[in-house]
Task: structure prediction
Amino acid sequence: MNPAALVPAVPATDPLYAHGVGLAVLLIVLIKVVVVFGALMVAVMLMIWFERKVISDMQSRIGPNRAGPFGIMQTLADGIKLFFKEDLIPERSDRFVFKLAPYLTIIPAFLAFAIVPIGGEVTVAGHTFELQLADPPMGILFLLAMSSIAVYGIMLAGWSSGSKYPLLGSVRASAQMISYEAALGLTVVTVVLVTGSLSTRSIVDAQALHFWQWNAIRLGVIPFLIFFAAVVAETNRPPFDLVEAESELVGGFHTEYSSIRFALFFLAEFMNTITMSAITVTLFFGGPDGPVPHIPHLYWLWPILWFLGKTIVFLFVFVWLRAALPRMRYDQLMDLGWKRLIPLSLGWMLIVAGFLVDGWWGVAMAAATVVGGVLIARAFSVGAAREEDRAILPPVGVRVWRRPGDPASAGPEGGDGR
Amino acid sequence: MADYLPILVLMVLGFLFAAISFIASALMAPRKRPTAAKVAPYECGIVPRIEPPTRFPVRFYLVAMIFIIFDIEIVFLYPWAVVFHQLGSFGLVEVIVFATVVLVSFLFLVSNGALTWGPAARLERALPSRTSESTISRIAAGLAPAGDGDRSGTGPGQAA
Result:
């Protein structure tokens, strides 16, 4: 094999840096960052209002309607209120980690948005640049890195509180987030496979011009569905919000947080929702791609509008899921992730790889995937049927039952198993 | 490396936002000494007597360990996916070998029950299947809607 063939094609970088980094470039970068930062904050504010309003409508309530027209300033009012609230640090908490955790949650939430392509290329005062905060060659890996760091914020927040419910919430959160990160990573590999580049700009460009070029359609609908399910679980949104299951865990990992620290966790959660909607659009729906009418001087606006429109559709789906679906049980959540999504995404990735080489390879990979799926199903039934004394580990909560397998002897205190 | 400049600026801005929020909150929030009850861990109103719990089921560690198998696989798959067009069928054969090795280890784990969560699966075999039709027929037959052996949440105390 020729070693030169292994070197990937260098992805097109932002033309802004083509002539080095001068003062003007620095200024453009600063302006871009501040605009995106402000837009994100406003978007979060509107998203919280939108969610409350849509859920109210779906439940035949009015929802927030006092602060501003249609209650649109409600989030701002809530945020300002939280500034004036007493900031408590529980006595049994690890004070340093307790204060560190909100930073670890909010900063990755901001950063993850940096790689999302918002629009096309524009030229302002002789400087051509992309409407995207950053287009590093590692692109989509940066998103995975940030979502991994976000696990630390939630984990440490719960652990450092020195309290029962936050600890349980954060342990659940880390197990859930890493489980679904595997499915998320495998579907993103499928996207990278057809694009041949990690850069989000290249991923968007590869889907341009026709909607049947969008990855959601070109890869078969399955990777998109797996990705979206994994994204909902990654952001701890309903129906996968086991992390803050109010009926079991009070408030989950942020039970002990109050005042502005609590507000920052909330802000980060909604910011992640927005970012993940934008990433879904980028990876599977062509990002800012769409028909551009010929209106002079407004050519730059249409991609932004397309991007915003598509993102809002997914934000609505997030809210819709919350209103429509009940929360899953923890074992159902783990079963869905490990037994269905991860094997399916791995198999689909192999099928796509096969079809990229040759039609016959694709058919062979599909057959191999079916065989693998049957083997996995068999392994799971063997695993579930295994007696407790022969298993690697006794299943959770086994000691609650006096005679396993015989619910009649469980008695009142064994009534709900886990 | 100039590509990473906006990320750095955004990180500084995000940090400043969080820091300034905390400072503003410290300035504006009421400054009083919290009572002992306020700083106690939240236990739904019960006075906490025991130490904060630090133990949780070992199964969570097991999930983290199994995740490592897949995470390492994903780490190797990304560079492979980027150069896949150059590798062609050679790359495909390589990844089939790789996926087989991962699949075998995954099969070993799950057939040992490493991903079997909770007693629900065993219970489901032991219990008569419970659907909305069976519940309706039970109520129609004059039986209590939730009784012994019912795992749908209502304990016997609440059902009485």
The longest strand of chain A covers residues 117-124.
